Structure formats: structure tokens, C-alpha cells
Amino acid sequence: MDNVVSRKKAMDTSKMVKIGMLSAVSIVLMMFELALPIFPSFLKMDISDLPAIIGAVSMGPIAGILIEFIKNALHLFKTSSAGVGEFANFIMGISLVTPIGFFYKKKKNLMSFVQGAVVGCITMVIVACAFNYYILIPAYAVAFGAPIEAFVEIANKVNSSVVDLKTLVFFAIAPFNVVKAVVVAVIGYPLCKLLGKVL
Fold first, then answer.
1. What does the pLDDT look like over 33-83, one tens digit per residue?
2. Cβ atoms 121, 181 nearer than 8 A
3. Which partner for 116 in 99, 152, 155, 167 could form a disulfide, CB atoms 3.0-4.6 Å apart?
4. Phi first, then psi: what are they for 35, rounded to 5°?
């Protein structure tokens, strides 16, 4: 009995160490943002959800959620959005990561990963659109002392279809998050297979 308890404690400790390591990698990746010319300049691409996907696939969806939480909690120390951006990143991150971890846990193959990624992408886009429309963009407008129209004007220079907040969300926020989810998922699967045995 003592041996079973000891092994369980060792496994739990090992799991927490791995979650900590993946969270550290995630916070580093969060620092490297890329502005894509097809999207407004205030939308920056990063691949900091990758470690959370790796954690969710190798250790279950809860591990992925913890990695997203730790990443954004640590990022609060250098926040410029009073925590609003970090909260949004966390909600959108777990929207993508959790379905991937859930589907892959049920059956560990490429099809399950793809199914999870599709569900995660759809969920992430819906959450991103709602969060940006009702909370994030209005909050940023207040934080930076600029009207919402200023964000619309920036987006309009890239896409003339953007004329108000609704079209900003539909023609900029939604496709941006689709691209981000696809990029992270496509890179994520081979990395999961490569690092799966280690983790």
C-alpha cells in the first residue's frame, strides 16, 4: 500500500514539474508576437498555446488548462491591459486546448486530435468574437483613451469591409482566430507525437 501511495505521489510530482516546465516555455513564447499584414496591427499572432496543447495531449485536458492559467497569471506582472488581455487569452486558450485534450484522451490518434482541434477552433472563434465585442475592445478603448472607432479605422485600412465594431469582429477577429487555431494545431500534433513519450 505504501509503495502504491509513493508511486502516486511521485507521478503527481512529475506531472506538476512537467506542467511547470511547459508553462515556462509558454510564457517565453508569449513574448514573441508577429503582426500579419492581412490583419489589423493590433492583432498579434503568437504560438504560446502550443505547450498547453502538448500538455493536454500527453497529460489530459486539466494539464492544458493549468498551463494556460499559469502562463497568463505570470504575464499579469507585465500586463498593459489591467488583466483584461490575460483573462481573454486564458478563456480563448482553454477554448482551443480543452476539446483537443478531451478528444485525444478518449482515443489517441490523429483523427481524435483533428476532431478536438475542429471543435476547439469553432469554440475559440465564438468565444473570441463575443469577448472582443462585449469586453475586450471596449476595455482597450478605455485603457488607451481611444474611441472604438479608432480600432475600426485601423482595421478598415487592411480590410475595407470593416466599418463598425460588428464587422471588425466578423471580418478581422474571427478569421484571425481561425488562422491562429489552425497554425497552432498543425504545429502541435507533430510536436505532441515527438514529445509524447518524454512527457
1. 898 999 999 899 999 999 999 999 999 999 999 999 999 999 888 876 667
2. yes
3. 99
4. -90, 125
Packing angle of the helix pair 174-195, 110-131 (nearest 10 deg) = 150
**pTM value?**
0.89
Ramachandran angles phi, psi of 80, nearest 5°:
-120, 10
CB contact at 8 A, 74 and 100: no
Cell numbers 475542429 correspond to what residue? Answer: 118
Tell me whether residue 3 is exposed, middle or buried, using C-beta atoms within 10 angstroms of its C-beta: 0 to 12, 13 to 18, 19 or more.
exposed
Residues forming a β-bridge with 112? none
Comparing C-alpha atoms, which of 86, 88, 56 is closest to residue 71? 86
Q: Are 51 and 29 in contact (CB under 8 A)?
A: yes
Three cell numbers at 75? 504575464
- Architecture of the 15-31+43-195 domain: Orthogonal Bundle (1.10)
The x, y and z cell numbers of residue 143, run together, are 485603457
Distance between CA atoms of 80 and 86, rounded to whole angstroms? 10
The residue ranges of every structural domain in the chain are 15-31+43-195
Check if the beta carbon of residue 168 is closer than 8 Å to that of residue 151: yes
